Structures are given as C-alpha cells and as structure tokens.
Amino acid sequence: MKCLRYIPVLLFALLSAAGCSSDECFDNQNALPLAGFYDSADSTKTVAIDSLEVYGLHSPGDSILWNGAGARNELYLPFKLTSDTTTYIFRYLQKDLAAHHITDTVTFIYNREPRLVSAACGVSYLFTMKEIRYTDLLIDSVSCPFGIITNKPIQNLRIFFRVDHSEDNTDNE
Asked: Can you give the pTM of this predicted structure?
C-alpha cells in the first residue's frame, strides 16, 4: 500500500516531462552536410560506391563514418564546430587498391555562423564554403553547388568519382 502513494508523484512527473517537449525541435535543426556520389564522366548519374572506408582526420579516434559495408551513393560528412576546416580520408578497400594503400583526402574550408533556432532548440550552424581541397587519385572533383550548407535536407556536397566503364563497353561477340 505504501507504493500507491507514489503513483500520483510519478504521474505528475511524467505529465510534466510530456508538457515540456516541443515539436519544433523535431525538424532538422542542424546543418549536416550530405555528400552525393557522382560519375565524373556523367555528372547527372549517381554512383553507388562500395569497398570504401571514410573517416575524419583528427576527429576523436579518427572516427570511421562508413566502413565500406554495402554500396552507398551518399554519405553525411559532419563538419567540426570548433574549427573552420574538416578533413576526410577516403580509403579504397578494393583488393588491388587496398594493397597499394590508395586513399583520397578531401578538406573543406568554411566559415561557421551560429544561428539561434529557438530558446527550446538552441543554436544551429550554417557553413559558408570558402574552399574545397582534394587529392585526385579516384576523386575527380568535389563541389558545394549552393556555396552554403543549411539545415535543408538536401545534398549539399557532390563528390565526382572516376568510374571504370570498361565493363559497360565490352563487345558481345
């Protein structure tokens, strides 16, 4: 019977917590760069890349964003909020490429601009791209089509890969 007297307190706590939640924070409030993968020979054609490991340079533990499991045609590449540069390493895991330790590096240089979303949701950052540097072993080019990364859920970045089309051009004799 002693437990019954705690039920009103528990109900009050649950109702209070539910009353404080806000639907306005469920929308995408963070500017999280989404990179799409494209064929450098046909910039309108997306490509699904497999056997690729992507990790951030000088991130805590150089954390791996993608370990190559399954093919993907896009990937979120979060930017550092404490720096105006973020670098990612693209390590190719295909047998021949992995044996030679083939990697590409992409460095994004940007301005960070904090924006107050609301008192409930806090601050979000906008990133204005200043420069993109990259090595070009298998990456042909990298672009930020709009020049700015906002919280709109779109591909903010495009990475164009050199794709082997030799299988597409075989003769059927």
From this structure: 0.77
